[in-house]
Amino acid sequence: MQTVTLNVEGMSCNHCVSSIENAMKELGASGKVDLAAGKVMVEYDENQLTLDAIKEAIEDQGYDIV
Amino acid sequence: MQTVTLNVEGMSCNHCVSSIENAMKELGASGKVDLAAGKVMVEYDENQLTLDAIKEAIEDQGYDIV
């Protein structure tokens, strides 16, 4: 397992938290959003998933990785 | 029909817009959120619905009427 913390811009409320955490779940990863800090911590199996796929899923929800 | 504009605090993103507009639709009213202005315009049938019911539905979504 691999853990990465991403800085993500545009997350403003609990709906945003859910949309990102659900997107991570759909990928088979586990995401935890720190709204105040603008960070997303993702734990994932590096044999199953690439970091790029994770970033893309977050961007697809309408957020920017910074 | 009656139209009212409410000042609503805490709406921060398009998820918030959807949650409020959907709540209005469920009541049988028609809501339009102006995110930048922090306003919700609601058109409703005053024979079917009270303003208090509308305010309550917005507050139930986690927002404050100011």
UniProtKB/TrEMBL annotation, chains A, B:
Pfam families from the UniProt entry: HMA
Residue intervals of the HMA domain: 2-66
Record-linked SUPFAM superfamilies: HMA, heavy metal-associated domain
InterPro entries for this protein: Cu-bd, HMA_Cu_ion-bd, HMA_dom, HMA_dom_sf
NCBIfam families, per the entry: copper ion binding protein (TIGR00003)
Protein name (database record): Copper ion binding protein
